[in-house]
Amino acid sequence: MRGSNSDRVRRDNLAAVLDLVHRTGPLSRAGITRATGLSRSTVAALIAELTGMGLVAESGPQGTARVGRPSPVVHPDPDCVAIAVNPELDAITLGVVGLGGEVRSRRRIEIARPGAARTVEVVAAELGSAELDGKRIAGIGVAVPGLVRDGDGVVRWAPHLGWREEPIAAELTRATGHPAFAGNDATLGALAEHLFGAGVGVPDLVYLNGGASGIGGGIIAGGSPLGGTGGYAGEFGRNRPAIRDPADRAVPDGTLEDEVNRARLLELLGLGSADQLALSGALADSADPRVRAELARQARVLGGAVGAAVNVLNPRLVVLGGFLADVLGADPAGFAELVAEQCSAPAFEEVRIVPAALGADLLMIGAGQLALHQLLTDPAAIRPPAAEVE
């Protein structure tokens, strides 16, 4: 526990119970008691307090084969939500995310290269939607394709958006009155997959995300996000890959995100713009040999970059999201062989390479987790719903 006094212990226990229900979903009181090691009376008191805060709710007991009285089931209160925001090169995606990582809604608003001020306007307008009537907004999380400073959510540099030194978190808080936070999109994607997706229970993983604004990465090391000194770790897309065959080079002196590129796939498919679901569907349906050839070329370049990451970080799992999951999906076994060729045998022998499990919801869940972090860490410090404030 973080403190020795009874109030600190109570607050830590509240956080432990709320985080458990958030990560695992509905649990019986008996299940919470077993998982936390707390007494039944303590668990009952904590659940009553969290219910009063509007964070959890209880429903009737589920059927059980155990002897004795069935235990009520505790689940996240559906009226407590976070707002998730992902500004991209061609659109702003907004989502409503509940405790438990459930994406209640997701909406894509096509805006070419949205500025920080325009993003704030869009989010502020969204908060007036009927969908949010009666909801408790715990916070706003922004997944940014760029370098975001830990601590204050200032976007130091998002080259594809043209953002420099943008205090997006502070501006959103000022405009909406809700606590707002910002983080790198791929780092948040890695966290989402670790908590709710392909990386559940995996303490060491590398996540690479491919989107309209390029390629970013996130790292989970020892069960925690690896951010580096300022929070800028994981910028794999800015590296210049070693490309064995000169014929595979598409851009002279190009970075990884120049070579492994979503826009090139869209162009070959004849699409001006598409969200990830539409792009994945179009790639799966295409029999165009040019599209197949481009996917294979991008796989060869990406395989080298992933191999270098495996050599340096020795993860148990590599997760590919966004259009990178489509590059992997075109030939998963062949891609694994490409990566293995770049790795030392011991480093690669326990590695699995998988597509992101959370699909189009991934960055919404990651941004939602960022928005909910303060609440999950110390629920007793968060103000109660407005209706309960005297």
Low-confidence stretches: 386-390
Radius of gyration, in Å, reads 22 Å
CA(first)-CA(last) distance: 32 Å
Total beta strands: 16
Please indicate the count of domains: 3
Average pLDDT score? 93
The residue fraction in helices comes out at 40-55%
Going by helix content, strand content and strand pairing, the class is alpha/beta
Biggest β-sheet description: 5 strands, mixed
Q: What is the ordering of alpha helices and beta strands? A: HEHHEEEEEHEEEEHEHEEEHHHHEHHHEH
Strand composition percent: 15-25%
CATH superfamily of the largest domain: ATPase, nucleotide binding domain
Shape: globular
Could you name the CATH topology of the largest domain?
Nucleotidyltransferase, domain 5
Task: List the total number of helices.
Answer: 14
CATH top level assignment of the largest domain: Alpha Beta
Task: Describe, in plain words, how this protein is organized in 3D.
InterPro entries: ATPase_NBD, ROK, Tscrpt_reg_IclR_N, WH-like_DNA-bd_sf, WH_DNA-bd_sf. Belongs to the ROK (NagC/XylR) family. With 390 residues, the chain is α/β, with parallel strands linked by helices. Helix content is 40%, strand content 21%. It contains 14 helices and 16 strands. A 5-stranded mixed beta sheet has the order 6-5-4-7-11, sandwiched between helices. A hairpin with a 2-residue loop joins strand 13 (214-221) and strand 14. The chain is globular. The two termini are 32 Å apart.
